[in-house]
Amino acid sequence: MITYQQLKDFDPQSFADAADDWLKLAKEAEASAEHLYERDGKALAENWADEVGEKARQTIRKVAQDFQAAGMSMRGVLSTLDGYADAIALCKRNLDSAVDFAVRSGLTVDADGQVTVPAGAEDQQLAERAQQSTALIADAVRDAAEIDKEAAASLARLIEPASITKVLTQEELRDEVLNKSVRDATASTLEMIKETMPLDAGPQEQAAWWSSLTKEQQDQYMKAAPVELHDMKGIPDSVRKDLIGNDGLNRVEMLRWVAEHGDTTHKDVPGMSNCTNFVSHAMRDGGGLPEEGDGQGWKNPDDWYTNRGEPGDRPYLPNNKDHSEPWAAAQNHHDYMLKHGGETVPVEQAKPGDIVYFKDKESIHHAAVVTAVMPDGEVVYTQHTPSLSSLGLNDRVPHNDIAIGSDVPIIVRPHPDWV
C-alpha cells in the first residue's frame, strides 16, 4: 500500500537501475542456456552415444532449460519494473500537480496529504478548491496503490517457471513461460499505464489532464493506450485524428478489432497458418481498408483480397484458392505493403497500427500487429497461430534466437496507395 508521502518521495531512477540489473542477468542466463544447448549438448551427442550418455545429455538439457526459463522470467521482471516505474512516475506527476494547485490557491497541504483552508480565510472559493485538491490527491494515491498491487501480483506469477521439473521442447517452454507469466507481465504493465488515465472523468477534467501533460508524456499515452485515449471525450480532435491516421487505414478501429479478436480464432482458416490472414482481416474488417485487385488472380502478387464466402466477402473461387498470396503469406504481405506506399521504420520508432514481421535466415515467416509501445520502448504486439495478445517483442526475440536461430523483427508502417 503506497502512502501520500511514499508517492511524494518516489524515485523512478532507482527502479530503472534495478531493471538494468535484471536485464544483465537475463542476458547472462540466455547466453548460458545457448552455450549449454549448442556446445555441451551437441558434444555429448557426438562423443557419448550410449544410454548413460543420453542421461547426461538430458541433465545438461534440463540445466540449459532452467537458465533459459530464468532468462524469460527475468525479462518479465524487467518489463514489470519498467512499467511500474513509468506508471508510478505518472501518478507522482498527477500528485505534484494537485499539490501545486492547492498551494497556488492559498491552501495548506500537510505531510499526510490533507488539504486545509487557512484559519480566517474569507475567500468563498477556497473550500471548493480544497475539496477539488483533496479529490485529485486521493485519486493519485489510489491509482498508485492499484498499480503497486498489480505489479506485486505480476512479480509473484513470474516465480512459477521455477517449479518446472521436466525437460520441455522449445514450443512447450514457450507456452509454459512466455505465453503465461511473462505475457501476463506485459499485459500488467499496460494496465498500470491505463490506471493513471482519468478514463471515467468528465470531458472537462479529461481536457485539463491532457493539457497539463508535457509533450513527451502525451506521446507516451498515444503509444501505450491509443484506443482508450481516443475514446476519452475531453481529448482534442487533433489528437484523435493523429491516432487514426490520414492514409485510409483507421488505426484506432484496427486496434479495437485486434483487441476483440486477438485471443480467439476469429476469421482463422482451418489447417492454415493464420498469422498474416489475421493481420489482413484486422486492416480490412477493423481498419476499414478496402481490398485491392479483381479477386481472380490467386498467384497475382499485386492483389490483396480474400474469398472466404463469409458476409461481406466474395464467393469461393472454383479452384478453391480463396485468398491472394499477399493476403495470407507473410513475405508476400510485407512486399505488397512496401510496394503500395508503406515504409520500413526502425524498431525504436514503432507505433500502434504498424505491422511487425519476423525474418529468419531465409525469409519472412511471421506477421503480427503492433498494439502498443511502452514508455521504455518495449514493442507490444498481437498475433494469430497461436492466438495471443500482449506479447513483448524484447521477450520473444531471445527465445526465437535460441529455438530457431536468428529471427529479426521488421517494422512496416502501411500507407495504402489504393485508397
Task: Describe this entry's structure for a reader.
By secondary structure, the chain is an alpha+beta fold. 56% of the residues lie in helices and 9% in strands. A hairpin with a 5-residue loop joins strand 5 and strand 6. Helix 3 packs antiparallel against helix 4 and helix 3 runs parallel beside helix 5. The longest helix is centred in the N-terminal third of the chain and has 54 residues. The radius of gyration is 25 Å and the shape is flat. It starts with a helix and ends in a 6-residue tail after the last strand. This is Putative amidase domain-containing protein.
Short description:
By secondary structure, this protein is α+β, with helices and mostly antiparallel strands. Helices cover 56% and strands 9% of the residues.
Low-confidence stretches are 314-320
- Order of strands, widest sheet: 3-8-4-5-6-7
Distance between the termini: 52 Å
User: How much helicity do the residues have?
Assistant: 55-70%
Binned strand content: 5-15%
Structural class category = alpha+beta
Radius of gyration: 25 Å
Biggest beta sheet summary: 6 strands, antiparallel
The whole-number mean of residue pLDDT values reads 91
- Annotation, overall tally of beta strands: 8
Write the element-wise H/E pattern from the N-terminal end onward.
Answer: HHHEEHHHHHHHHHHEEEEEHE
Please count the helical segments: 14
Q: Which word captures the global form?
A: flat
What is the count of distinct domains? 2
